[in-house]
Amino acid sequence: MGELDRREALQLFGVGLLAALHPGGFELVSRMSRRAPGASLLRALEREVRGPLYTRSEPGFGGAAEVYNSRYDDVRPLAVLRAAGARDVQAAVQWAAKNDVPVAARSGGHSYAGYSTVRNGLVIDLRSLDRVTVSSGSRSVRIGPGARLIEVYAGLAAKGLAVPGGTCPTVGFGGLALGGGYGFASRALGMTCDTIESMRVVTAGGSLLTADEDTNADLFWALRGGGGGNFGIVTRFTVNASREGSAAFYSASWPAGATEDAIAAWQGL
Ligand SMILES: Cc1cc2nc3c(=O)[nH]c(=O)nc-3n(C[C@H](O)[C@H](O)[C@H](O)COP(=O)(O)OP(=O)(O)OC[C@H]3O[C@@H](n4cnc5c(N)ncnc54)[C@H](O)[C@@H]3O)c2cc1C
Prior knowledge:
alpha+beta, binds flavin-adenine dinucleotide, Uridine Diphospho-n-acetylenolpyruvylglucosamine Reductase, domain 2, 33% helix, 11 strands, Uridine Diphospho-n-acetylenolpyruvylglucosamine Reductase, domain 3, 269 residues, five-stranded antiparallel sheet, globular
């Protein structure tokens, strides 16, 4: 086996204990100690996809593996697939299931908990799926999960539209929307997930589904705020944007101990 992190070491310890206490536990032990797929299996995946696959020996691997929080710099995936479309995501999920490789989806890579990278697993990076498409005369907007918030805001503002989102320009729309999404505009417009009309989702079985109020409604419900990486990999969002003109924001601060006065003044505005 390769390097282990704390979670894997604890899992291994627990499974070893189970194996000692229960006859069926030995099957689990053999699963835990299964070797990572070799170069030929990775090449098989590469042949099935359109987007680039960065394996550890590729020059671009370091950059492709990096996430926003340098705390996770030591987490080395087996490979990073920069998916070129939903079909790549399907192929990668099916390949990973067949070869027992853990996967992590990534949009903007800003997960606080490091959930968009995976030690000895496959990262399915969606940052190339970053199109923001506004149909003329409509408030329905298609947004790729890999679009950064600043790209979404800029693309929509050019058409007099807006969706509520977060304050960090480089957060990915995918992770933000699936986790809820709260920002400056949320008091007026709600959370990002409330604006979603439908999604295209690749399930753990590798199927590509639509999830909306009428189709796979339970999945639609769970995806809107249930957290990224839990119920499938979203390859496209359709959201209902609001017509907005201009907007402004400000911040206020006051001396410690003056909170009561500040709130009273605020209420009087
Ligand atoms: C500096 C900073 C500022 C922030 N500000 C705000 C804010 O103002 N408002 C707010 O609401 N949040 C804010 N957040 C939190 C942020 O919204 C979440 O961390 C969000 O999950 C990041 O999305 P991402 O796509 O960049 O991250 P990623 O790390 O790519 O993904 C986050 C999680 O979602 C999963 N995931 C990603 N894409 C998909 C997909 N397409 N399908 C399925 N699962 C997927 C990943 O596997 C991971 O579990 C902030 C975070 C940071 C680091």
